Amino acid sequence: MKKFFQDIKAELQFKGAGPGQKLSESPRERAPKEKPKADPPPKCRQGPTNEAQMAAAAALARLEQKPKPRPPSSQDAIRNQVKKELMAEAAASDKGASVDQKARELDQAQLPSGSGLQTVQESPRGSPNSLPALQEEDPSMLSVSGVYFTCPLTGATVRKDKREAQIKKAILEHAAQDPVAAAVMEIHTCNRDREKVKLGVETIAKYLDNIHLHPEEDKYRKIKLQNKVFQERIHCLEGTHKFFQAVGFEKATLSVPGQEEATEDFYVLKEGKLGDLKEHKEKLLSGEPLRAQLDRQLRVFKPSPQASRFELPSDFFSITAEELKREQRLRTEAVEKASMLRTKAMREKEEQRELRKYNYALLRIRFPDGYILQGTFYAREPVSALYQFVRETLQNNWLPFELLAPGGHKLTDESMALNECGLVPSALLTFAWDADVMADIKASGGERMESVLKPDLLLAVQTLS
User: Fold this and answer.
1) Residues 6 or more apart whose Cβ sits within 8 Å of residue 113
2) Which of 154, 230, 282, 368 has its CA 20 to 30 A from that of 259?
3) What global pTM score does this model have?
């Protein structure tokens, strides 16, 4: 019985023993041992200090600001395609390929699908952001066949790319009637550098002044052609030699004093030509470049629901075939730019760049009776030119009227340019008589005006397809 109670006690001690404490099966078998030292209780971890927390937050912010690598996108595919085209173009150039051939190859290169961009052939003509197509245009589909100019000397009307040749031809023909005036026009018109023209004209005037002020001295009547000043300021200008010959100079080869068998070329004034030199000098100094005038190509159309539809030829764009390639490269960045947050200054710069794409504007004006007036303008012409164009077509051109832009707002500031008003490259405007004036006419019992345009214009009315 005593043994039974000892076993029970030992079992109770085993159950109440702490961790790591080993007990023998019975008290008799347990030998006295040293108690193992218990591990010290774990210390509580302290939180990071304020300085450490601030340093960690700054490091995290720096990591978040680092650009993350992005997977290849459609824009990357576009850039790779354009890069290949440029490499092909350079290789073709080295082999002597023509510009036209390279342009055709670029036209046929399709952009990757899904890029949101169009090929050159697919660009719609007449839309504000479109580029001119390089393929041959169908005249029957165009709103106007091109941009035309009128020569002020002959009255001949030619397309834009023929105007300079027409001006030169007209000047040559005018030389038979007035050789001095023709030479003056050639000097001022056919030389593009206005500063060089100004310097050359002033130098010629100085030569003529010296002759006029010293009529008895032969040395002033002779102009040495090999003279450095003559070569640098006069000889390089087109039309100057024709001017000297027209005002009475003739070429002569004269011997050099003190040098045997040495000769030099001179312009020598003929006898009896001295009296007109002052008048010729004034003509030369007052001369202006002869410029072809933009032909409005005035058209009147019957009322049509197609009035707001425009198909423009490439003449209306300031961009050339070579610049078109560069524009297409810039278009590859359009998607990325659209997704960027742009400042007001950036937006204005982009708008100005868009405005410079167009040299001309095709404008239509719808009248109250439904007839449509059409004309061609420079993109940078003032609104006053548009008002003047419309006024010249009215039966009652003394009555005040208003022009409404496509958005419905009135064009009140006539000093603004057409492109600044959003009227390029094409726009349909609305004509309206001044409301107060019309109310006065109605109150006074005046007759209602059935037709707005002049009758002779309505005789040549066309159908807008």
Assistant:
1) none
2) 230
3) 0.63
Q: How far is it, in rounded angstroms, from Cα 269 to Cα 271?
A: 7
Q: What are the strands of the beta sheet with 372-378, ordered from one edge? A: 299-301, 372-378, 360-366, 426-433, 401-404
> Do residues 401 and 390 make contact, with C-beta atoms less than 8 angstroms apart?
yes
Q: Which residues share a beta bridge with 254?
A: 264
Buried b / exposed e across 315-338, counting CB within 10 Å, b at 16+? bbbebebeebbeebeebbeeeeee
- Taking the C-alpha atoms of 181, 182, 183 and 188 in order, what is their torsion angle to the nearest 10 degrees? 90
Give the three-state DSSP class for 123. coil
pLDDT in tens, the chain (465 residues): 556 556 655 555 555 555 545 444 444 445 455 555 555 555 555 666 766 766 766 666 666 555 555 555 555 655 565 566 556 656 655 554 444 444 344 344 433 333 333 333 333 334 444 444 444 566 778 899 999 999 999 999 999 999 999 999 999 999 999 999 999 999 999 999 999 999 999 999 999 999 988 888 888 999 999 999 999 999 999 999 999 999 999 999 988 777 777 889 999 999 888 888 999 999 999 999 999 999 999 999 999 999 999 998 888 877 654 555 566 566 556 555 555 555 665 555 555 555 567 889 999 999 999 999 999 999 999 999 999 999 999 998 899 999 999 988 999 999 999 999 999 999 999 999 988 888 877 787 766 666 799 999 999 999 987
> Which residues are within 8 A (CB) of 455 and not within 5 positions of it... i.e. 6 or more apart?
395
